[in-house]
């Protein structure tokens, strides 16, 4: 059974008179532990797809099943619980909380999940070490480089041991060398921890390393030779 299965997914936005068909019939199947790369022009629907898979938004029509569970049938509370327990997000702009240290940022999702303080501290420290920032745990985001910030964001995304990691242009704001290091980290995490990953990227390195390469155009996946 596929870990994630989306069928005939659509998402239409209504702003003004003209509807925007951001997703226009997307089918997707991700196996457990797979690394899939999504490319495609600006406005083609990549971030919209990630939002749906991560339970941040709901589709206009179609289905998303995660381990056999249909997301469309979940209440807002259930969807929030799904996000918290099962999904990690990584964004181009990092989205760290600026007044919290690196360690505190990593602890945030653990707090939301109700993990007790002692366990939270231990787990955040392990994760900060995993991403190679043991010496930077007490730094605020502005006291970190771009690559270090993204490492903190990766550690945070892993905090609740998600089944699915969704990354939206994770190297988009980094120089080539730093982007390379972040890509390596994601590929290694995929291999070592078996987390299913969907990565939106313009970085050919990620696409090269992926098990599945998907190209989105006008809200649909184009067939592409694997
Ligand atoms: N909340 C929204 N309300 C209205 N339209 C939206 C909304 N979010 C996205 N869109 C529209 O849906 C389409 C797809 O947007 P999306 O952000 O998914 O594209 P993308 O492929 O991620 O692009 P980029 O590479 O620039 O990030 C765009 O035409 C966008 O303007
Ligand atoms: Mg986008």
Outline the structure in words.
- The protein has 226 residues and is an alpha/beta fold.
- The protein has one domain (4-97, 147-222): Rossmann fold, CATH 3.40.50.300.
- 36% of the residues lie in helices and 27% in strands.
- It has seven helices and ten strands.
- It has helices at 46-53, 76-86, 102-112, 117-130, 146-158, 176-193, 204-209; strands at residues 4-14, 19-30, 35-39, 61-66, 69-70, 87-91, 164-168, 196-200, 212-217, 220-222.
- The strands form two sheets. The protein has a six-stranded mixed beta sheet, sandwiched between helices.
- Helix 3 crosses helix 4, helix 3 packs parallel to helix 5 and helix 5 (146-158) packs parallel to helix 6 (176-193).
- The chain is globular, with a radius of gyration of 17 Å.
- The model has no long low-confidence stretch (mean pLDDT 94).
- The structure holds adenosine-5'-triphosphate (ATP) and magnesium ion.
- Residues 46-47, 168 line the site of magnesium ion.
- Magnesium ion is lined by residues 46-47, 168.
Q: How many helical stretches?
A: 7
Find the CATH superfamily: P-loop containing nucleotide triphosphate hydrolases
The proportion of residues forming helix, as a percent range, comes to 25-40%
Q: How do the strands of the widest beta sheet line up side by side? A: 6-7-8-3-9-10
Give a short account of the largest sheet: 6 strands, mixed
Which distinct ligands sit in these coordinates? adenosine-5'-triphosphate, magnesium ion
Shape call:
globular
What is the name of the CATH class? Answer: Alpha Beta
CATH topology, which one?
A: Rossmann fold
Secondary structure category: alpha/beta
Range of strand content? 25-35%
Question: How many structural domains in the coordinates?
Answer: 1
Mean pLDDT: 94
Which architecture would the CATH scheme give at its second level?
3-Layer(aba) Sandwich
Q: Rg, please?
A: 17 Å
Question: How far from one another are the termini?
Answer: 20 Å
Poorly predicted ranges = none
State the order of secondary-structure elements, H for helix, E for strand: EEEHEEHEHHHEHEHEE
